[in-house]
Amino acid sequence: MISLKDLVNVLVSHFLKFGSKVLDSVTSLVIIYIIYKISCKIFKSMFSKKVFNARLEKGHANTIESLILSIIKYSFITVVVLLFIQNFVGTVGVTITSIIGVALGFASQSVIKDLFNGIFITFENQFTVGDYITINKGSDNFSGIVDSVQARITKLRDFNGDYHIIPNGFINQVTNHSRKDSRVLVDIQVDSTQKSDDIFKIINVALEKFSHSDITVKPYIYGIVSINEISTTYRVVGYAKPLSHWKIENELRMVIMDELLDKNIVLPVTRHSILRN
Prior knowledge:
Layout: H1 4-48, H2 50-53, H3 58-89, H4 93-107, H5 109-123, E1 132-137, E2 140-149, E3 153-157, E4 163-167, E5 173-176, E6 182-191, H6 196-209, E7 215-227, E8 231-240, H7 245-262
């Protein structure tokens, strides 16, 4: 029969062993956390250097930085999990770790697909942080500004403020709206009774007055694109830096309309006929 003294000794021994494991784990976690922070800081400082950024576009550099930091984070999480298993499972830790590794290998095919697709997206420079893109995910389309590209996911924020988190493995097709100049397009409707020569002259005067630092091809009159019994539609076309065309269109539309109103040009009005018996 085990005496009380022996029982106390056994409990104290197990407690000390457990405490030692906890202390070792905490120490290891602190060291791993410090290494993780140092690694992140090194990579961030590397990507902030002008020499490195001079070889890459800013958006591409930010995307590569985001991907690498994400891979580092997942790598350290894996190390922490394996360390926890090794310390608290005991001598069979390696065997259990191997079994878990095999199980995860079968269960994580989508994760691996996400990871490799994220790497290809980044290094093929399909899109970068800050780009306006449309992603085809199966039968659904998501449009927005790229907030980050990580090892497994891509984050988009659309113009409604919604935040889309899309696994990289589900990205089948991408349309990038930010790589080339954006088209500036403004349609102006005036009453169909107004002479086209007069309208052309007035719009050209407005275009001469208008200027914007983001314009790459100065807006010009494309021509008349629509005629009906009420109105005639004149189209103005130009080109501007990516994602600046919406603001330029609004400003240009106001300048043209002000010029038309100053010259007493009649705008289209819907006419109603009343028939009497």
